[in-house]
Structures are given as structure tokens and as C-alpha cells.
Design brief:
Chain A: Belongs to the ABC-4 integral membrane protein family. The complex is a heterodimer. By secondary structure, chain A is of the alpha+beta class. Chain A has 25 helices and 21 strands. Chain B has a single domain, classed as P-loop containing nucleotide triphosphate hydrolases (Rossmann fold, 3-Layer(aba) Sandwich), CATH 3.40.50. In chain B, helix 4 packs parallel to helix 6. The chains are: A alpha+beta, B alpha/beta. The complex binds adenosine-5'-triphosphate and magnesium ion.
Chain lengths: 839, 250
Amino acid sequence: MLKTILAGLRARTARLVLSSIAIALGVAFVTGTLVLGDAVGEQTRDNFARSARNVDAAVHTAENSPNREDGIPADFLQKIRNTPGVEGADSREFGSAALLSGEGKARNALVQPLPTTEKLRDFNLKDGKFPVKADEAAIDVKTAQIAKLKVGDKLKLLDKDNAEHAFTIVGTYQQGASSISMSGSDHVVVSPEGLRTVIPDQRVYEIVAVAKAGVTQQQLVADITKAIGPGYQVQTGEELTQATLAQVGDAAGEIKTFLLAFAAISLVVAGMVIYNTFTILVAQRTKELALLRCVGANRSQVFRSVLAEALFMGLAASVLGLLGGIGVSAGLQTFISTFGGPSGGDDNPIRLPISWVTIAAGFGVGVVVTVLSAVLPARRATRVAPVAALRSQPDSSDDVARTGKVRIAVATLIALVGGAAVYFGLQQEKEEPAMFITGGATMVLLLAVLLLGPLYVPLVNRLFGKALRGVPAKLASANAGRNPKRTAATTAALMIGVTIVAMVAVVAGSGRATMNEQVDKRFPADYAVKSNVYSQPLSPKFTEDLAKVRNVAQIAPELRAFGESPKLEYADVTGYPTEALGSLVRPDLAAGTLTGLKDGEIAMREKEAKTAGVAIGSTVPISGKDLKVVALIKDNSYGTGIVTLKTAESILKEPVKGYQNVLVKLAPGTDITQARADLERFIATSPVAVLDSAAETKAELNSQIDQILLFIWALVGLALIIALFGIANTLTLSVLERTRESALLRALGLTRGQLRQMLVVESILMALIGAVVGVLLGAGFGWLLVEAISNSEFTISFSIPFGQIGIMLGLAVVAAVIAAALPARRAARNSVVAGMAEA
Amino acid sequence: MSALVSEVGTRTAAAAHNLVKVYGKGDTAVRALDGVSVAFQAGRFTAIMGPSGSGKSTLMHCLAGLDTVDGGAIHVGQTEITKLNDKDLTKLRRDRVGFVFQAFNLLPTLTAEQNILLGLELAGRKPDKEWFDTIVDVLGLRDRLTHRPTELSGGQQQRVACARALVARPEVIFADEPTGNLDSRSGAEVLDFLRMSVRKMGQTVIMVTHDPVAASYADRVVLLADGRLAGEIHQPTTESVVNALTHLGA
Ligand SMILES: Nc1ncnc2c1ncn2[C@@H]1O[C@H](COP(=O)(O)OP(=O)(O)OP(=O)(O)O)[C@@H](O)[C@H]1O
Ligand SMILES: [Mg+2]
């Protein structure tokens, strides 16, 4: 039997190569996603753990200490350094300052002192050296890239009185990931003395220490605790690492969940392609298997031979796929680090961790799916009476058996479950569970739709076929409809991919449309002037002068104040001048009126009011003041609510330094270009002020959405490639299967070109069936998701990004043409006589 | 009618001149046709016979423009088809030649009627409704027109193939063992029909066969052996054909 198997493998090289590629691609896809997930996790862990690198003991202010805000007393660092057993200690601190780089506006920068203990530096030097002198600085590589700075350049940091302090850049470094590096600001490291010149009163919240050789971490902790006294939390380095990693778990987990969901999808897509390929392969061999039976092989021998062949192929292809998957992962990592994905765009080395899970999943997909795909049709093949099989024509009624009742019943059941889950998801008030439950439910519905494929795929095909003219196109439609199960399985892979892209595109598109609407509605001001640097708000003087600029009709400075309330978790209010309310500030009102808001009154966010249990007319205590609730607003962009400037000032603990944001309205009929030029000229007088318009805000928000979309498109693009390969594979195999038919058509007068055209149209038909059904499903699912995410406070209006969907359909057609190219060439090249002779 | 038949009977529908066809190269080269010269009159039913491997199918494929030749010339009507490129050959097959093969004549995706009209559709020609009805009725296919090939018996499938070949009124119909897969009754039906199409409709038919009974339906039998012409029989009977074949050693 082994000889027969090997001979068979040799004889059917072309078909086997095709199916092996299908398997290998599927495996590559699954393992690629898993490796990528592990790599991202490992990289994040590594980056985060960097901040705990070499640390033997860490001192923090205690969790519930009353003077937590004040940080660790300044003399502690010296105390700890003097503790026996401590080799070195440094504070982990950072302050915020405005960075001026030659030309342009100031940017927000986080300034850190360089730890004097070399082991405690949680960043890796890339170029040059670390700062030693008070006027030297090193910058993060990302900062260098964005601010266009290099070693040798000068940079200026502004202190809070806007005095400039010049530094020479002596080096660049790679920042470890931490809560500091994740904030989008620029990063600068200076010497401890350098830091004092810019931020003299920076508070310290963490001190880390390294032990002398031979001193254990526990010992060190005990010594330090003794030296500094009670009231502070002292951790061993090990504990610090664990605590840091626990925090990372949350951040990396999200990415991993996303990738795992994607791996699951890729598994299904790959499984479908493999299954389909093998089903065709075995169906084509039905005759050969029957012949084996006729010459005396028994049922189980035939069965085993098919199985052994599948196992062999599955194993070989899985190895290839595994290697390919590692390549895919490397490619994706390059893509992410080039375009900036969830890892923050740091230029990290490409990592290829290969876990047992990955290998098991790879071989699981490759071998198990292949063998399963072979078992079902092989069982069918061995059940057919040998003689009947010998006589059978391709696509005789046997293989094209009607969609089973069981299949319909199962699909209906799944659809009901999915429907119920969608309903449940829509009921959820909170955004996240609503999104996850509804999202999961739509995938269940997708499964039901896929199962029912053989029912509606022929219908769709007939619908499309009606629009076709010419003999080759009609023949193509007939071919696509000849085996509904096969066509359904072929289109299924594409359908899954397109459904998901369409769904994401619809949700993102709706979100974008909603955001643009909101920007228009909530941004009645013509411009906003903002401070680029958080620690440097726009001064009251600047604001006053702004109001005097030509053509400026009205300004509204915005003051955010953080207070406390016994009834609320957070109590941050946004203050505006009364006269701006209702004109320059127009939130979505749920009840009451905003116009004429008086001091001591608040227009409260509806949701917060509910939490606090207050209604219009009652009062809410914030920072010791009882504010009277006069209106309820739906927006969440004003914190707890809107108050007058005076009220906000009274909640603020320190005197007003300035405003982060000032809304500007121009006089009616003003020439925009003229006004903008005037404003820009005025704003140039401040190092930190920038001009913002509704259009720019929109562009900024849109670019954020586009970045998310880009990542998803990249991943889904891979799914599409596999799906299209599936089409090419099915087509090639059916071309092989239909050699005689093609020859007959050629004998009857079909030209080579027409034969090619027939196959191309067939391919396009299959791709369009998958893509169109996918788009419809995706749009429907997207609508469900949008409905689910929307709640009383935040309504997303459904909108379909026709452009993107059009592009997708266009791509599907182009890819279908490419998929058909090889099989069509092959079919047309075959000579008529040779084709007719084919058994 | 008989005047018409005798008039066209003198015209040549297809002819081979010194035809050579070699398969393979070097040691394994097979001269499937080794200088065959033969002419087929229009409006006649000609059978090609000979032992297995004598080159019958090869000759027919070459005559019909399905295969290329290595030497000699072939004419279909006035056209020297050995000089045509693939595109023109395809057009020739579509417009001027009809086929009936031993098996697998029909496209499984099309109904009997669609199969019959396929050639005309490819040529972009309108079917002659009367002619179509005549053929369908003569072949007894009226109530089978909406069936697909898998729902037809072997004999019915061959009759559908005959109908397809005839409906376009080609200059020549080539048939390679059209009854090879059929029982004697179904075979006789198909042969009767082919003979009738020649006698009554003035069709030209060239048929390859192994069966002396089938050959006896023809007006003339051309004998092949080892890729060469090995004689011919006019107005053959089953006995005369068997005799001739025995001489050839088949
Ligand atoms: N594609 C091919 N490659 C190589 N040799 C071939 C090929 N086709 C036919 N031959 C050889 O050419 C010779 C003639 O073949 P052909 O098929 O014309 O015979 P035939 O008379 O039709 O036989 P049969 O009665 O068995 O159908 C044979 O010796 C055959 O082996
Ligand atoms: Mg033959």
C-alpha cells in the first residue's frame, strides 16, 4: 500500500503542491499571529521591566499616608545613600517643562534627572553620551525624530516663569516603556543639577536603590526601613518587578486579546481553505479509489491510504507554514514599528518567541484540519459502490447532494443563539460589555450564515449570472453554480474577511462621522487657542490681549478645576465666562437652561447627577461648596459639569496661572484668511500658544481613527490573501477536473481567449459573491455594533463608508482576476486532443 | 433531391495529402500517420477502419483541425487548414465542422437543449427553429430537452451530441467511435440517424469505428494499417468489412 501512496503522491504533484500551499499558508497565518502576540507581550514586559532593572529596593510614599501629595522628603535620598548595604540610590522623578527646539512652538516635555548610579538607568544609550554637566541633555530617540533634533544641537527648556534654559544635546537614548514613556510627550534627560535649574521644586515619589555585593534584597529593605522610619512603603526589587508586570498585564492583555481573536478568525479561514482543497482533491480521486477497490483493496485500506497521504502532506506543509508564520510575524512587526501601532512605535528589535502553544496550534491546524478534511470525503468515497464511482461524472448528483436538513437545523439553532446574544448585547448600557457581547454575537451569526452558504450562494450566483452577456460568461455562471457546496466553501473564506473589514470600516466610519458632527456642533467657536505645554497655561494677560486682536468678537477662556465631592469619585468642573455659555459653548442639554448660569450654579453631566443622586433644583457639594444644579447636560467632555469662571477659580486650590484653552469667535463677515493671519501673528508672541480650528481638530481625530484602521486593514489583508488563494486553488483544481470539458468546448469552437475569459469571469463571480455578501453582513453587523455602543449619553449615528467599501469590492475583483490568471493559462495551453484523451 | 445528392457527391468535403504525424522524438518516436492521402466526398457517409493503433483517431483529429500535423496538407472544402493559426482553426471548427465523440460529448452544466445550441451560440448564429425542431423530433429528444446530461442515458447523450453536430449544418461531421459505448439497439438508432442525415439532408459524415456492423451503414469504408492507407470498400456489408479486416490481421 505504501508504494501505491508514494506513486500517487508523485503522480499528482501539481494538485498536491497546490493543497500543500493552502495548508502552509493557513498554518503561517495562525502561527504568525500567535508569534506576533507573544512578541508584543514579551516586548512590553521587557520594556516595562526595564524600570525595575537592577533595583534591589524601592521606596514609595505609603498608600494611605496623609501627606502623600508632598512626596518623599528631599533629605531621604541622602539618608538612603548613607544606609549600610546600599551601593547607590537615585530618585525616580520627572517634571514637565516646555521644550523649545530652534524654530517652531514649544512642545510638552517630560524632564528626568539622570540617575547617578549607572545600574539604575532605565534607558539604553543609543548615540553620544549621557549628560554630566548642568547644561547638557540627552533626548529620547523618538523625541529626536519628532522634534528633528540631533546630538550637538541646542534645545531650550522653559521654566514656569517662561525663562529659557539652554542645553546642549550630548546623546540620545531608547526609553523603556512606562507610564512616563507612554504619555505622548517628548522626553529629555538632564543631570540632577540641570533639573534643579528648570524645575527647582520637583517632588519625589520614588527612590530606588542597589545593594552592595552580598547584601540580600530583604536585608536591604530592612536597613532602609530602619534608616527612613515608618510611613513609607519599601519594596524589594523582586516585588517591584512583580507589581510593574501586574500593571503591564492589563496593557498587553488588550493587544493579545485582539490578536487571539484574530488568530481564531485566521484559523477558521485557513481551515476552510484547507478543507475545501482537500474535499476537491479526494472527490477527484473518487474514481481512482474505486479502481483500487475494484482490484481488491478493501474499504479500510483505501481509507487508510487517503489518511496517510493527508497526514504526510499536513506534516510537511505545517513545517513550511511554521517557518512562513515566523516570517509573517517579522513582517508585521516591521509594519507596526514603521507605522506606529499599539506598541507605541518605539524602534524595538524584531522578536520571534516560539512557544509550545504556537507550535501546537500550527501543527494542529496543519495536520488535524488536513486529516479531518480528508476523512470526510474519503469516507464518502469508500461508501460509494466501486462500479458506480467508476462510472460517475464530475459533479454528478452524489457530490452535489442537497443541503442537508441537519445543516439547516444546526444553522437555525446557531442563528437563534446569535440573535438572542445580539439582543442581550443591545440591552447593555455600558459601552464595553455591549461592544464585546454584540461583537461576539455577530460572529455567531456569521457562522450560521456560512453554514447556510450552499442555500443562498447559488441564488446570488444566478442573480449575478442574469446580468452577464455572452457565451463564456454564461458558461462561467453555470460553472460557479454547478457545485453549491464547493462554491459556498470557496467564497466563505473571503466572506469572513470582507465581513470583518466592512464591519470595522462601518463602525469606524460611523464613529468618525459622529465625531465630525460633534466637533461641528460643540465647536461653535471659529478658533481655539491652546497651550502646547501642560505646565504652561496661557496667561490671563495673554488672554486679555487676544480679545483685542482685530476682528475677534468674543473670547471664552476655559478653566478646568479638580475638586472633591463626597458624592462622586471625581469632581472636575469646567469653567467659562457666563456670556459664552449658549453661544461659544453649546453642550447637548438634557434638561434646564445653560444661558445665564450664575456663580455657584452648575450645569451637571446627567450621568454624574444620577450617580450623585441629585436633580435640577438640588445642590451638589464640590470642594466644600454647595453648587446648585440648574441644568443637566449629556456631553462627557466637560467633566462633572459646567460652571462659571469664578466658581471654577474658587474650586481651584492655587491661584489661577492661566488657561489651557481659549475659544475665539470672529466678528460676522470677517475675511477668514485675514483673521487667521492676524491671529497667527499675535500667537507668535507666546512660545506655547497654538491655533486650533474645528477643521484641524477633525483632522487630528480622523488621523487617530485612520491609524487604528490601518492596523486592522493590514491584518485583514492577510486574511484576504489566503481567501483569494483559496479561490485560485479551487479554480485550478476545477480546471484540472474539467480538462475534458474545456477540450470539448475548444473542439466546439470556443477560442483560447474565450476559455480564459470564462475562467476569469468564474473567479470574479466567486469573489463577488463572497465580497458582496460579506459587505452586506459587515454593514449589518456594523450597524448592530453601533447601536450597541450608543447609549443615552453617547449616540453614534450609523454611516457607511462607501468609498472604502467600494475600494474593497474593487480589490476583490482585481484579486479574482489575478487568482484566475494561472488556472486560465493552464486551461488554454492544453491541446484539444490531449484534453479529450484525459480520463 | 437525388439529383442534388449526386451533384454534391462529386465534390470533395475533406482531403488529406501525404499526411505525416509523428508522436515523440528519437527512439520512442511513433509515426502514427505515415504518408496518408485520402479524399472524402461531400454528401457521403465514410467509415474509417483499421486495427487498434493504426492511426484512425489521429487521422480524424488532424482532418478536423484538432491536432497539428508534421507533414502533408489537409483541405476542408477549399481551405487548406494546415496553414491556419489557432484562431482560424477555432473558427473553422465552430462554423464548418461538427463533432461526435465516443464519450463525454456534453457539458454537464447545460441542459440538453443548451448543449445542442452551444455551437451556434459560440458562433453567434441564430438557430433555425424549423431545422432544430426537425432534428429534435427525428432523434426523439423532444421530452428530454430540459434534462441535464447526468439525467440522460448513454444513447440519449449520443443523440444529443448528433443533434448538436447537425443543427449548425456543418460541411463535415466527424464522429470517433460514436457507438463505442452504446448497446447494439442504441447504436443502431444513432447510426440510422447519421445515415439518414446523409441520404435525406445531404450531410457529409466521416466516422471512425471498430464495429463492422456500424461500418456497413456507410457508403464507403477506408482501411488504415500502421499509419498507411490499406485499401477501401465501396457499398460495404458486414461480411465484406469483416473479410477485409481479417486480411489486415485485425
Ligand atoms: N499523444 C500520443 N503520444 C504518443 N503516441 C501516441 C499519442 N496518440 C496516439 N499515439 C500513438 O499513435 C498511434 C496511432 O494512435 P491512434 O489513437 O490514432 O490509433 P487508433 O487507430 O485510433 O486506435 P484505437 O482503435 O485503439 O483507437 C498509436 O501507436 C499510438 O500509440
Ligand atoms: Mg482511436
